Amino acid sequence: DSGVTQTPKHLITATGQRVTLRCSPRSGDLSVYWYQQSLDQGLQFLIQYYNGEERAKGNILERFSAQQFPDLHSELNLSSLELGDSALYFCASSVSAGASYEQYFGPGTRLTVT
Amino acid sequence: AQTVTQSQPEMSVQEAETVTLSCTYDTSESDYYLFWYKQPPSRQMILVIRQEAYKQQNATENRFSVNFQKAAKSFSLKISDSQLGDAAMYFCAYRSPIYGGSQGNLIFGKGTKLSVKP
Q1: Per-residue pLDDT for A100 more than 80?
Q2: Chains A and B: how many Cβ contacts under 8 Å?
Q3: Which of residues 1-60 of A touch B (CB under 8 A)?
Q4: A67-72 contacts: CB < 8 A, separation 24 or more?
């Protein structure tokens, strides 16, 4: 158990819908990362937050957005869902934003778009 | 942009034997971090081992060790005394110390699926 929690574990929804994925980092961790794992694209970095502020952006679609709240939990919002958005979404956390700090991954949320 | 390549989609090893998983990367940076992550059927991403590019000594964690060849941009993972629980997908990952855009975050290879035969 990494100490990072993600809810829900599984999510099934229809095309065009909007969903919210939630992540709670390890106690004391200030930085949160979101990754997408799909069969087509593999593991891709989406976005990073540090202490409530966006720090870095990766291959995140405009239909996707995220935020980190004052209690440091983070939410990833996916809207206008398409079949290709079906994937495993991971959240990871680290003590700080520096590259030397290890990232600890949550168990992931499996999103299925039908 | 940095890239990570794992040329072996699948590997197989006999229990108690040794297996080496290959990884190469492309970068123009001199300072960076390299990682191997394990993803068992549970889908949990588990950090196996890390290597700082400035360190010449190869990292070791129990039965797991790496062969880091900086000039060749190669970072292989050796698993000794393989156990059934080692069966998983293994991902090689690169991390730049530079912030901004997608830099400073993990860049993953496509993965190698390791099977362990009893």
Answers
A1: no
A2: 65
A3: 2, 33, 35, 42-45, 48, 55-59
A4: A68/A32, A72/A24, A72/A25, A72/A29, A72/A30, A72/A32
